[in-house]
Amino acid sequence: MSRLQLLILWILAIATGLYYFKSKDVPDSINSKTKLEIGSDLVSGKTVDTIDGFKVKAGKDTVTLKKQEGEWVVSEQDDFPANLQTISRVLDALRNTKVAQGVVASDEYYDRFNLDPATEEEKEQPDSITLMAGGKESATVYLGKTREATGGSSGTAGRFVSLSDDDSGVYIVQETFGFLSANSDNWISKTLTPLEEGVIKMEVAAPNDPTFKPWTISRKTVLDDFLVEGLTEKEETRTNETGTLKNVFSSVSFVEMLNEEEYKTRADEKGIRTLKATDSGGSTFLLTIIPEKKEESAEPKKDDPAAPMPSINYIVTIKVLAGPTKPEPPAADASVQDKAVYQQRVENLADLAASVNRMGKTYGGRYFVVNTAAVGSLTKNRGEFIKPKTEKKEPTTVNTPPVRVPAPEGTNPPTPRIPGTPPPPPGIARPKEIPSKKPKIEAVTPPIQVPPIPGSQRNPPKAPAETGKPAEPEKPADQ
Predict the structure, then answer these.
(1) Would you say 113 and 143 are in contact if contact means Cβ atoms under 8 Å apart?
(2) What pLDDT digit, counting tens, does each position of 195-233 carry?
(3) 119: in domain
(4) Could you tell me the sign of the dihedral formed by the alpha carbons of 354, 355, 356, 362, in that order?
(5) Same domain, 80 and 143
(6) In this structure, are residues 180 and 90 in contact, taking their beta carbons and an 8 Å threshold?
(7) Could you list the residue range(s) of the whole structural domain that residue 319 is in?
């Protein structure tokens, strides 16, 4: 073998080795093919539509969402209702995520993309979304490193992901899933709706405060104003104050949810208020409102008058005392509309009762922290809802005794005198009016004589006898 042939063999061996190690270190995404092509759905829409739960894992935290009786709940929060907007955002992201690029790689290279779920390094473990159907795990989407944008621009250009049922490689998608969180507190719905129907009666008391006077307000329908019960004749309701309680339960947001141990540490039961509320459907609820203990560090310094007053939060508990009652049938002469409303309420009674029972299970035994604006009006004293009654002054009338006008002489019969009036003074009789004939005044205008036009045939010149002057001869017409 010549030296030239030996040199060629060495060159080919070195080139083959370089190609092997290069292809092993960086997978070739151009010449190789993954299971999913560019533009394909990362997760099929059919799969997303059929799931009844999913699990999100990030680091050591895990949160599980599931459908229970047609409602999404958070398992780690004792099946408390989930925030539907957050649920929809996750499902829409899974349904709309497309493959931007496929990278062929075996499992041994997944750690380079932070896609190895078996790694012991917590910072290198991937986040994941595990889909469930029928209570069983169906597929898992692993979320690895974010891909940085190229071309000098800052930011991200997608994320590396892999699928549990696809070992052909990893994929690059445009969706970064940066909104995901495994903190269960971020997944619950923080809106309280303690009453199913509009409230028509409220009874407020303070069991630990003997100086507090209980008060009750009520109204016949949800369209009427609240009136304070037990008013005296000199008191009336401040309807502008009770009007603030009409929508107090329409939408109340809570800050956080406490367990029993946290409640005991933070509640100040000396200022407790109880509210028994009845809605238009006949359901009765008991709400307990407890002020939160003030923190010493939160109190303003005495030498700083400009320091703001600390805000006081309240802890609220909700308990269902009784479900809806059957509505009273309308009278025989009731209107068609009243009869239709009664029929509709009877038909919806079963659904309303189921909803109230579900509410009792959801809110029972929980402690919700709300701000002052949410329930502050329920902690007011009775005197803040009443005012002195304003008496309506009737218009003053002055009665003047009638005056008798004497009848003129010659009238028959004379005008009768009104009883209780003094007789008319003598000599005040109206004199008779004697008609007098007044001369007629006439205006006579003498006739005006219009002078005749000279030479006119219609107005011939007067004779000399008439004028007393000799007649002048007529001039020819051509002169």
Answers:
(1) no
(2) 768 899 999 999 999 999 999 999 998 889 999 999 999
(3) yes
(4) positive
(5) yes
(6) yes
(7) 191-295+311-388
More reliable by pLDDT, 337 or 455:
337
Q: Could you tell me if residue 3 is inside a domain?
A: no
pLDDT tens string 73-99: 999 999 999 999 999 999 999 999 999
Q: Are 143 and 60 contained in the same domain? A: yes
- Which of 87, 145, 79 minimizes the C-alpha distance to 112? 145
Does the structure show a pLDDT above 70 at 403?
no
CB-count burial class (<10 Å; 0-12, 13-18, 19+) for 62? middle
DSSP-derived letter for residue 123 is G
Does 213 share its domain with 344? yes
Q: How far apart are CA 138 and CA 143, in angstroms?
A: 17
- 342 in any annotated domain: yes
Neighbour-count burial for 334-348, b at 16+ CB within 10 Å, e otherwise = eeeeeeeeeeebeee
Walk across the sheet containing 99-104 and list its strands.
80-81, 71-74, 61-68, 53-58, 127-133, 136-148, 156-163, 166-173, 99-104
Tell me, yes or no, whether 449 lies in a domain. no
| Whether residue 175 sits in one domain with residue 73 | yes
Residues 131, 72 share a domain: yes
126 and 50, same structural domain? Answer: yes
Of residues 194 and 285, the one with the higher pLDDT is 285
* Residue 168 CB-half CA count within 13 A: 11
- Token readout for 15 is 């080139």
The tens digit of pLDDT for each residue in 274-331 reads: 999 999 899 999 999 999 998 755 455 555 555 444 568 999 999 999 999 998 898 8
Q: Is the pLDDT of residue 348 over 80?
A: yes
Question: What's the chain's average pLDDT?
Answer: 81
* pLDDT per residue as tens digits for the range 370-387: 998 888 889 899 999 999
Whether the Cβ atoms of residue 23 and residue 15 lie closer than 8 Å to each other: no
Task: Give the chain's end-to-end CA distance (angstroms, integer).
Answer: 163
Question: Looking at the structure, do residues 138 and 36 belong to the same domain, yes or no?
Answer: yes
Residues 114 and 249 in one domain: no
Summarised one tens digit per residue, pLDDT across range 249-259 is: 777 889 999 99
Tell which residue, 202, 204, 199, has the closest CA to residue 379.
204
Total of domains in the chain = 2
DSSP state of 401: P
pLDDT score, position 332: 87
